[in-house]
Amino acid sequence: MRRHSLDVFSLLSGLVIVAFAVAYLVGAFTDFRLDGRLAFPLLLVGLGVAGLAGALVAQRRSDRELPSSPEQ
Amino acid sequence: MTTHSDYTQPGAPPPTPPAYRPPLRRSRQDRVIAGVAGGFARWLGIDPVIVRVILVVLAVFGGSGLLLYVIGWLFIPDDDSPQSEAERFIARAQRPGSSTRTVLLVIAVVVGVILFSAVVGSAFGNWGGFGSFLLLIAVGALVLYLATRPSSAMPQFSPVPAGGPMPPTDGEPSAPVAQQPMQSTADAGTTAVAPPPPPAPPTAYAYGGSGSYPGYTPPIPTPMPPAPRQPRSYLGLATLSIAILVTGVLVSLDVTGVVDLAPVIVPGVALLILGAGILVGAWVGKARWLLWFAIPTLFVTMIASFIPANFDGRFDPNFGAGVGEKVEAPTTVLEAREPFELGVGQLQVDLTDLTIPEGVSTVPVEATVGLGELIVTVPDDVRVLVDADSQLGELRIEGVERTNDPSPSFEGVLPGGPETGPVLNLTLHTNVGAVEVSRA
Predict the structure, then answer these.
(1) A7 Cβ under 8 Å from any chain B Cβ
(2) Which residues of B105-118 are buried (b: 16+ CB within 10 A; e: fewer)?
(3) For residue B268, which residues of chain A lie inside 8 Å, CB to CB?
(4) Are strands B383-397 and B340-350 parallel, antiparallel or unpaired?
(5) Quick check: B113 and B237 in contact, CB under 8 A?
């Protein structure tokens, strides 16, 4: 597999999913319990932030790359 | 291979279907997964969305849509390939030392583990149903996602050159430019490039396009170099396979009694693996699509987290103890000593009219509901000790704060009574449901 430039969306959404998994797995062994009513909105917030950040970074990258290319 | 001129017949009545039926091939341009629906729709001369909706409905109800799709994928050759996948696969596997055999082996092991755990699970517990439920959700989510994803290749099938439905703006078609590369690659291989159709009166087409506009000359397709091939990433597939494999192994170990896992562990671990795969995709490979598996898995994890670890999976409705609504209002200590039971439904135990004779210090009251509600009302002027629990559900005890615990229990004094005097000793239990204690 080839290394590519950092995919911000994958990074953040992956972190969100891992965080949920850890929260539930920790809850299975301890008294910690994620409020079921909060899980869904938290997921939406996490994915929304990931999507927004990914879009902004991609936009900045494409803005940086495009202006020079038509001249060449 | 058909050119778009087959469909474009300027001046002709729009609804006429193409006189020539293209061969049944998986579509290269109109493709969401493998072009089965797109190719089939082209062959039938209908909108691919119709085929996709039917496939998804069939996939969700019984799964036959999925099977049909896989069969189509395997046995219908691609637009630009003489062989179907099945033919190619067999040819490849026959070569000595091919990696295809290894892949086959891995697939066989994964399927074997899943089947094993399903069979063992359905024989010995409720895990089989749970596992297949998980799988069904994941597959359904994928099919739904793939079928509803907006396809950039969609305009390919429109009878007018791409961008036809767009109102033209002085020979500067901004939208068609974006779609031009695909248009041209489709036409590049054909010998005769369709000449630009002459201006035609506005017409309606079966595929939603509003037709050409007077005075609008669609841009002539210019051959573009084919887009550089992106290296394919198998990170997502590998991660998904690991998650499925681990799920199967964990469930197998649990149902055979090797380990004792809380219900949340299995989907939780699968979720962790999927999340890790997506995370790795941030640096190498591509695994974003795993999210469509991770989100349903998260919901399953959420539901599983409500099932307490000690819950044995047997709801034991105990129908013999009665079904429905039952009201008990004992007036004497002797009546109150009789344990109250209900299998399924609502059991009300009204102790307000209970008279406690002089000299009696403790009156034990026991009540059990298998599945449902147990509602106990006690008099204002009596000390009450409560020992209540619900294996799966909630406790509503007046003056006691409720918890998030899916398997709550409470032992203590019911607030609001006198400090001295005889004691009502309540022992209340429900397998699945709620226990409520309040003062009259």
Answers:
(1) yes
(2) eeeeebeebbebbb
(3) 21, 24-25, 28
(4) unpaired
(5) no
